Structure formats: structure tokens, C-alpha cells
Amino acid sequence: MQHSKPSDDGRIRCNWAHMAPDFPLYQIYHDTEWGMPQDDDQCLFEKLCLESFQSGLSWRTILAKRDNFRAAFDDFDFHKIAQYDEADVERLLQNAGIIRHRGKITATINNAQRALDLIASQGSLGAYIWQFEPSLQEVLGLEYPAATSASSVALSKDLKKRGWKFVGPTTIYAFMQSMGLVNDHASDCICHATCEAARAGFIRPK
């Protein structure tokens, strides 16, 4: 769970929501998206890919380029990305609107192929990922702010075993936070109760 402080509007938010006061998308993302439970496969794949691209960089960089990423990667339709070839890799390496990292680009293509494999065996990405939802005991035992957890280590290890790339436990924990597998908003943050209510009413995919 994050630490918090008041915003300019007097409302309390997680500390990281204040990191870029000149970049309103940061607070919008915090208030409307981060921590809300998600089970849509294409959305989950996008979040996984963007967290992988974020490795070693700031989330502001990724958020500022998210629309460019969506345009470059066919809105993260993993069915299409799985068919990308070397010409697509070169096209993406020439795109200044995204992170031009060959390893992360080829990992995205590989992961799209692995996503299709996983869906064939598990039914959906959502059904697979929500199997790794941490217990309340695990969540309460974490020291905050946490960068990994037992569940993120387990999910990372299983994805790697299935052939996924750039899915280390820190990347996976950030993914779990973003898609609502955990509610890591500070307890007094304006979004904590909203996310908790959404999680309580959320039907876990099977």
C-alpha cells in the first residue's frame, strides 16, 4: 500500500500521483484506472506489455507514449501482434513515438504468441491471471511500499516457464497493482474505497 498526501484540490492521493504536477495524465490515470479490477484479455495484455516497456524507465514516459504504443501495436491486439515479422520489428525500431528497444519489441511479439498458447490452455488471460490473486494474509504481511510479493514471484516464474519475456517479479507486481489484482492505494487515498468496492463486486473469471 502506498503512502499518501493531499493534492492541490485538498483531496488525499497516493504519493506517486503527485510526482508530475505538470503532467495531468498522471493524476487522471491514478484516479480512474490504477487498481481497478480488469479481466479483458486485450487490456491485460496491453498492461503487461507497457509494464515490460517501462522496465528501467519512468511510468510518466510510458503514459505519455501510450497512444503511440497503441497505434504502433494494433491496439495491442495479440492476435495481430503474434503475426509480426522482422519487417514489423524494423518498422517499430524506426518509430520515435515509442520506446525503440529491440529486446522489448521482440519480447512483445513473443508474448503475443505465448498469450495465444495460454488462452488455448486456460480459456483466457483473465482466468489465468486471477488465479494468482494474493490472499488477504499475504497482502497484510507486505511491507509497503512493496516492489514484489510472493504472488508476483509465482506469476513471474510461471510466465517465464511458459516462455514469456520481460516479466520479472517487479514488473509483474506493478502489473498486478495496475489491473487490480491487489488494491495498493493508500488506505486514506480517495481511490482506495472505490477500488475496494469494485473488487468486492468483481466476478473473478474462471
Automatic annotation (TrEMBL):
GO terms for biological process: base-excision repair. Zn(2+) binds at C14, H30, H185, C189. GO terms for molecular function: DNA-3-methyladenine glycosylase activity; metal ion binding. This is DNA-3-methyladenine glycosylase I. Pfam families: Adenine_glyco. It comes from Pacificibacter maritimus. Keywords: Metal-binding, Zinc. It comes from the Bacteria.
